[in-house]
Amino acid sequence: MSDEVMYSLLALGAASVFAVIWALLSWLACACLSAYVASTKGHSAFWWFLWGLVFGPLGLIASAGLGPAVQRVRVVGALGVEPIPTLPVSTQRRQEPVLGGD
């Protein structure tokens, strides 16, 4: 084989290695961004990281389309649930002294 053919094959190999590394890093970035977006909306970052790792850009698009997580409400008086203790609220307004006032 001539030197020109060898150099072209070497360049093709280096370009394909670069493309594979770039694709893997992009896929990992999609997984990290999916986890971040889902966690800001109140969903599990771990599971959305896995979704992003498996599905890549589709996982990122899916996490961007998520709504806010539904918060569970504890019903007071339900079976086995104690009422939430509250602090007493003062109805009187406390007035602070004014410095340098008349």
Describe this structure in words.
- The protein is an all-alpha fold and 102 residues long.
- The radius of gyration is 29 Å and the shape is elongated.
- The chain has a domain of 46 residues.
- 56% of the residues lie in helices and 0% in strands.
- It has three helices and no strands.
- Helix 1 runs parallel beside helix 3.
List the keywords.
mainly alpha; 102 residues
Task: Describe the structure concisely.
By secondary structure, this protein is mainly alpha-helical.
List the helices and strands and how they pair.
Layout: H1 3-40, H2 45-55, H3 57-64
Helix pairs in contact: 1-2, 1-3, 2-3
Distance between the termini: 101 Å
Radius of gyration: 29 Å
Can you tell me the overall shape? elongated
How many β-strand stretches? 0
* Unreliable spans: none
